[in-house]
Write a structure and sequence with these properties.
252 residues, mainly alpha
């Protein structure tokens, strides 16, 4: 890894950390940067997951007074999230590189769409009047969401917000706290699996992780003055551009 590539990964980490602090969606910035650094797609995905994983934990601790009590329901959701994240991470590592490359543009496009629709999903969460599905069925949806989170992860927060809103519509702050807790479980177990299996390229990961920490702290200050709307538009534009670039690279 040369000096210029180190600067690219550091800058991507900083921007990703800022984006996560202000609006979410860092993976749409950081994952393409890992690919641009020349990492194979699966290694880039695993390394990116490790580099940005502390963000979920920081978000959960930032609103820890709203974290749910360890009831039977909460414990079951944590187990489902952990098993789902482990399953997704395992599937990623079992998949041949050529089969993961093919859906990469689609995954980026899907994540960009989810990110663009996030405000509507959050508004729907506020307006929900009562549970729409039994807890058991929502746990099944949660499992599918967490498998996706362990496999790729971009847009996981939006998906979890939607799933949790089905069964816990009364308190959006509680939903967000639970979302952060479950996303932390997914990120933690996936990170452990990627590290144990040797799927992480540490030089690139450490540089990006450093940038993400710097960006996260900076975002804590910028959130007071920089409208999240403009950050969201930047991330959506970046997602669209990256979709086109990687569709041209892998599909045509």
């Amino acid at each position: 890894m040369d000096f210029n590539m180190s600067l690219l990964l550091l800058a991507a980490g900083i921007v990703g950390g800022l984006v996560n602090a202000l609006a979410g969606g860092a993976t749409l910035i950081t994952f393409p940067a890992m690919l641009a650094a020349g990492l194979p797609a699966i290694t880039a995905n695993a390394s990116n997951a490790v580099a940005i994983s502390p963000g979920h934990l920081i978000a959960a601790l930032a609103d820890r007074e709203k974290l749910p009590a360890l009831t039977k329901r909460t414990a079951s959701f944590i187990v489902v999230a952990t098993l789902g994240g482990a399953t997704g991470a395992g599937l990623l590592l079992l998949l041949p590189e050529r089969l993961f490359i093919l859906p990469v543009p689609g995954l980026i496009a899907f994540s960009t769409l989810l990110f663009a629709l996030a405000p509507r999903i959050q508004k729907w969460s506020y307006n929900s009047q009562g549970p729409l599905l039994p807890t058991g069925l929502s746990a099944a949806f949660l499992g599918v969401a967490c498998i996706y989170g362990g496999f790729f992860g971009a847009g996981l927060g939006v998906i979890l917000t939607a799933v949790l809103s089905i069964t816990e519509p009364d308190d959006i702050r509680a939903i967000k706290a639970m979302k952060n807790l479950l996303a932390t479980c997914v990120a933690l177990i996936a990170t452990i699996i990627f590290i144990v299996q040797g799927a992480v390229r540490w030089p690139e990961t450490i540089v990006m992780l450093l940038g993400a920490v710097i960006g996260g702290y900076g975002g804590g200050y910028l959130i007071r003055v920089l409208p999240a709307f403009y950050v969201r538009q930047f991330v959506i534009l970046a997602g669209v551009v990256m979709t086109v670039i990687y569709a041209d690279k892998y599909w045509f």
